[in-house]
């Protein structure tokens, strides 16, 4: 149609054609990658993935594990102390840190407590001046530039001095904090990826489809994602070992980024499990405190920053429909952001609570029947999902591979949907149909799974064993006599 239209202006038509073919190429690549991405894995790893509750079958070199190390039960190794360097974009000071900062903080506080000597090169998250921290065997060096973000050269200089005094056993960087052109010259470096461009590309794709259902948008963001992905694939090999926070990201690094399987490992994020516990009494009290009517049939909850790319336009539209057709269903919104006001306008079935203190957050989760996470970002592991599961709640989330392969393994754990309003409404209706009793049962399955996989303790043990294995491959064997 378009070609006919332009046929009298050959110049314009050529341009149009080349534009068109690049679009077709991009689309084809996307479809091809989606087919790969969403196709179930059919390789020999499957038995391990199906062994959700223990990795009990595994007797081998840990570097060959094709499932999260969290699954294994590592015993204590007390006679070997490590000296580790860590590059992290920021170090949490004060409240409300993002996921990546929390990861570094939780992990390295735990490893220092175990007696390992930890040196972190970073900046304070509040971008103000703070003295370096020397707390037992945890050392945190702040190396900001004028704007308060990390001065990489300065951080590297301090690292270098400390390394000369006594060499580090291993170096760890949270994403590209230690950039690849420097990592190339650091032989013993591992990187943890909290999101890769392959996943970001999918996120942009979903956003494009939602924003421009008729395909009239500029697709700029989508077009810009592809060169970033290509660039990333080229520089990832500058890092020697790669740690992913979901099974699906690990597979992409091997199958698309073509990194050697032996250099790619999966260690899932964990949260401090003592902060998020199943407590139905606290849940009931929380409902009363915030004034949820006693005649509601079901309480849904969502938590986090109320911004567009966390999927709030999607939930807003889906819940408007639900509120009309199921007047007994209530939505609790914990968090702040531009979408808070719009939720408040949805009427008496919605309550916006604002940002909650961590101690209140656990009570909030406990007051729900099901936790909803509408995110448009198929990357990483959303910590809110894990927190809700620890509190014994089933989850309702998009069906991204990072979630379905690692968190919501099947319908026993909750409900999944494609990131569009129709599919979202169907999933919500399925949860409403099931009702509080079935939801409660699913919640207990979530809780027992979360306790075996997503705890700070498990994460710290897995990372400790990883660094030990990198230092001395005797520790790469599993199980050791000290393991359970
Ligand atoms: C970063 O640190 C180096 C010295 O380590 C210094 O020469 C440079 O000016 C700093 N850059 C900025 C932007 O602060
Ligand atoms: C619950 O009770 C309130 C007031 O008592 C009433 O307005 C509302 O319609 C009731 N909701 C349902 C779902 O029955």
From TrEMBL:
<dbReference type="Pfam" id="PF00534">
    <property type="entry name" value="Glycos_transf_1"/>
</dbReference>
<feature type="domain" description="Glycosyl transferase family 1">
    <location>
        <begin position="287"/>
        <end position="435"/>
    </location>
</feature>
<keyword id="KW-0472">Membrane</keyword>
<dbReference type="GO" id="GO:0016757">
    <property type="term" value="F:glycosyltransferase activity"/>
</dbReference>
<keyword id="KW-0328">Glycosyltransferase</keyword>
<dbReference type="InterPro" id="IPR001296">
    <property type="entry name" value="Glyco_trans_1"/>
</dbReference>
<dbReference type="InterPro" id="IPR028098">
    <property type="entry name" value="Glyco_trans_4-like_N"/>
</dbReference>
<dbReference type="Pfam" id="PF13439">
    <property type="entry name" value="Glyco_transf_4"/>
</dbReference>
<feature type="domain" description="Glycosyltransferase subfamily 4-like N-terminal">
    <location>
        <begin position="97"/>
        <end position="273"/>
    </location>
</feature>
<keyword id="KW-0812">Transmembrane</keyword>
<feature type="transmembrane region" description="Helical">
    <location>
        <begin position="21"/>
        <end position="39"/>
    </location>
</feature>
<keyword id="KW-1133">Transmembrane helix</keyword>
<keyword id="KW-0808">Transferase</keyword>
<protein>
    <submittedName>
        <fullName>Uncharacterized protein</fullName>
    </submittedName>
</protein>
């Amino acid at each position: 149609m378009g070609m006919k239209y332009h046929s009298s202006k050959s110049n314009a038509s050529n341009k149009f054609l080349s534009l068109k073919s690049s679009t077709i190429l991009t689309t084809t690549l996307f479809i091809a990658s989606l087919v790969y991405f969403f196709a179930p894995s059919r390789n020999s790893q499957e038995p391990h993935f199906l062994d959700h509750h223990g990795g009990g079958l595994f007797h081998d070199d840990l570097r060959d594990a094709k499932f999260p190390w969290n699954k294994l039960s590592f015993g204590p190794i007390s006679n070997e102390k490590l000296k580790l360097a860590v590059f992290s974009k920021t170090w949490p000071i004060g409240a409300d840190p993002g996921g990546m900062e929390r990861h570094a903080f939780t992990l390295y506080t735990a490893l220092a407590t175990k007696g390992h000597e930890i040196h972190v090169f970073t900046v304070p998250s509040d971008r103000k001046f703070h003295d370096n921290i020397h707390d037992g065997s945890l050392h945190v060096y702040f190396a900001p530039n004028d704007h308060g973000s990390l001065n990489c050269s300065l951080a590297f200089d301090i690292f270098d001095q400390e390394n000369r005094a006594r060499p580090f056993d291993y170096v760890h960087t949270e994403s590209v904090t230690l950039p690849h052109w420097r990592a190339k010259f650091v032989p013993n470096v591992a990187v943890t990826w909290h999101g890769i461009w392959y996943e970001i590309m999918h996120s942009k794709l979903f956003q494009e489809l939602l924003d421009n259902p008729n395909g009239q948008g500029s697709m700029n963001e989508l077009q810009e994602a592809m060169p970033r992905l290509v660039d990333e694939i080229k520089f990832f090999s500058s890092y020697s070992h790669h740690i992913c926070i979901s099974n699906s990201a690990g597979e992409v690094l091997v199958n698309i980024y073509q990194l050697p399987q032996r250099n790619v490992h999966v260690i899932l994020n964990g949260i401090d499990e003592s902060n998020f516990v199943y407590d139905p009494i606290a849940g009931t009290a929380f409902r009363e405190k915030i004034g949820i009517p006693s005649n509601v049939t079901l309480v849904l909850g969502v938590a986090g920053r109320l911004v567009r790319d966390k999927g709030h336009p999607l939930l807003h539209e889906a819940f408007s429909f639900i509120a009309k057709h199921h007047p007994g269903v209530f939505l609790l919104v914990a968090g702040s952001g531009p979408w808070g006001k719009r939720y408040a306008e949805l009427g008496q079935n919605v309550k916006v609570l604002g940002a909650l203190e961590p101690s209140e957050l656990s009570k909030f989760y406990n007051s729900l029947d099901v936790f909803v996470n509408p995110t448009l970002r198929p990357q990483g592991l959303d910590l809110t999902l894990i927190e809700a599961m620890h509190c014994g709640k089933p989850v309702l989330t998009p069906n991204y591979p990072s979630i379905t392969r690692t968190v919501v393994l099947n319908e026993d754990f909750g409900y999944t949907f494609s990131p569009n309003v129709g599919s979202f409404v169907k999933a919500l209706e399925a949860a409403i149909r099931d009702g509080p009793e079935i939801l409660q049962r699913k919640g207990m399955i979530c809780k027992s799974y979360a306790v075996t996989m997503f705890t700070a303790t498990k994460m710290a043990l897995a990372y400790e064993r990883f660094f030990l294995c990198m230092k001395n491959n005797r520790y790469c064997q599993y199980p050791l006599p000290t393991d359970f």
